[in-house]
Fold these 2 entries.
Entry 1:
Amino acid sequence: MENKRIATLTLDDGRSIELPILSGTLGPDVIDIRALSKLGMFTYDPAFLSTASCSSSITFIDGDAGQLYYRGYPIEQLAERSNFLEVCYLLLHGELPNAAQKVEFKGKVTQHTMVHDQLARFFNGFRRDAHPMAVMVGVVGALSAFYHDSLDINNPAHREISALRLLAKVPTIAAMTYKYYTGFPFMYPKNSFSYVENLMYMMFATPAEEYVPNPKLVRALERILILHADHEQNASTSTVRLAGSSGANPFACVSSGIAALWGPAHGGANEAVLKMLEEIGDVSRVADFMKGVKDKKYRLMGFGHRVYKNMDPRAKVMRETCYEVLQELKLENDPIFKMALELEQIALRDEYFIERKLYPNVDFYSGIVLRALGIPTNMFTVIFAVARTIGWVSQWNEMISDSERKIGRPRQLYQGAAKRDYVALEQRK
Ligand code: SDX
């Protein structure tokens, strides 16, 4: 971080303070306000609309230009030319792997795809119709109980093995969650498959039949995982960082990230998009629905973003993937997809959405692709969590590796009662 400029804050009582302005490699400069406490004051920024919570070298978003880079590589190039495990290596280690590193990393992840057999018993505590995200929060958090030999977060080797275990086991747990919900038996990982083939195998195979993955559908799911792998300091990643800043173990931190991701304003939006499209029901009712959105009766799920004030670059790739998958499955005339395209076209032309810079985000099309792949709506955010696990773990690892790390502890603007004395019961009104 370079520090070349200064911001001077002058208060109405004449006091002033000089605050360094810091520049990163890309993106806006930031005002370092850490010295502000010398004035006995701090900033007020609910929901962190104007606050950088950390410095990071992992992912960069240019919201105005609609650009997303993982370690400097544009998401479009990675989605087109890379694969998910290679992207995981890149996010975790900072560079694309060479041939030997790629083989070694895949081998390490493959060794950890199975879960302890006792872990399977946690599922029986859940109702069969429990929301899969509720199960994921519980079972991923329960991993903390199985690896006491490697929970010293200050030990780089423990951090690495925990990262590998999470990357390898979250897909297995996700597939078990789906099987538990459907009543079908769990499928053990098949390590001869690729990471994504294995995920589809564990979800869709049964002991009674040979399972042959469809390469085009595997490629589509691989692309979805790449697009969702990391995204700067979003709500769930910030949750993982805050949990990790207390020294909590990585399994518990990732479980907290899954909980935060579940919300419909965040990772739960892909499920909410499908529900919205199904409720609209027919393309002839889109115009009416959009009137309701402008009257603020409901939100246009899958649209808008805290950072992107242009089209989310992931949504563009997702729209193409959507078309490819529907074509492969001979579903080009899928009414839900047609409705989504119509809705997008109306929104992109309507002043209400243009002036609010509301564009489709990654969740607008991902649900349609996942549904076409045979994944039920309530499993959409689970797939998002499978993808984002590497982002959470990479960001957690970056934070823990920082020798200057401190526990996160925001302050508040207190609006409650001033000091007052206790009132005996008989004197209360
Ligand atoms: C993800 O942060 C990340 O990086 C997240 C994510 C990731 O990869 O981790 O990208 C994944 O979460 C994508 C976002 C998925 N969520 C949705 O699709 C849900 C629908 N979108 C919104 O709820 C909303 O757009 C947010 C939460 C995404 C962003 O909200 P902001 O930045 O807090 O904006 P806001 O709520 O202050 O809204 C600003 C204006 C308001 O209008 P006015 O009061 O000024 O008149 O825009 C309107 C809002 O009413 N608005 C919407 C809208 N989103 C904002 N109006 C209709 N439909 C919407 N979706």
Entry 2:
Amino acid sequence: MGEFKLIDGRAISESVHLETRQRVAVLKQKNITPGLAFIRVGEDPASRVYVGMKEKKCREIGITSQTHILEKETSGGSLLDLIARLNKDPKIHGILVQAPLPRQLNEAEVFASVLPGKDVDGFHPVNVGKLMLGDPSGFAPCTPAGVQQLLIRSGCPIKGSDVVILGRGNIVGKPLASILMQKSEFADATVTVCHSGTTDLAGHCRRADILIAAIGVPLFVKPDMVKPGAVVIDVGVNRIPDTAARNGSRLVGDVDFEAVKAVSSMMTPNPGGVGPMTIAMLMQNTVRAAEETLLN
Ligand code: NAP
């Protein structure tokens, strides 16, 4: 077996940001500054961190961002009113409603209220449908699009490969299956999606040339589930107790990195793999949304 290669999501995301910055510069020459609005409901600590990281990246790239923080008890009506206002605002090209939302809010209804052309998170049913149809005029959700870019930019052949995705969530597993099965240059894989109802999940995993874990179970993927030489992508973000850590916990992925490293040929670290790419795709979608206003 050849040497192990780390798929460095931070470095790859920086090369995407470089391209995005150049596109922002071109837009600025045309007096357009891409604008992204974040909506955060309540004070979920992870959501605060995620929105904070995205705001910071906007500043670095030259995207204007604004963040609307609503109270945890906010009614559906006031959230929908805010979205309606942002839909009409010509300075706002992208709208991101940070999930998870408090229980009283209907997530599907909220996502569907964002104008599809401003839905840079790719969760509007129109964009979900376009992804399934292979219509590139829609916005693909950022995490699965980021996984595809990681594979492409690290030179991993996708066409003809056997891909196994662990997890059929609407944010990662399902859209990623859709992306990688398309009849197109950087896809064309044979995709198997495993979930809690799968019989012989480990057996499916062992057939994968590319194994992608997105189930949210800490360190679930062990070396005996991985074909020697396989490419492994770890999407999971899980907080586990750690008495040695300052705050008593630490983040780990769905893959037992240290153990699986001995078997796989290429693997994402976690953190430092898929996470930075998710943000890179969000920035890219926002700039594309701004560019498309020139076409109207
Ligand atoms: P989700 O909607 O909860 O979906 C999880 C999926 O995993 C479900 O299909 C579930 O099966 C399956 N599953 C759970 N436990 C399993 C087990 N023991 N065996 C087999 N299948 C199992 O989650 P998600 O939103 O797709 O997110 C998945 C993971 O990715 C989470 O850790 C999340 O934090 C992470 N994530 C990371 C990023 C990033 O930027 N890095 C972005 C988004 C999400 P059933 O359908 O049968 O219940």
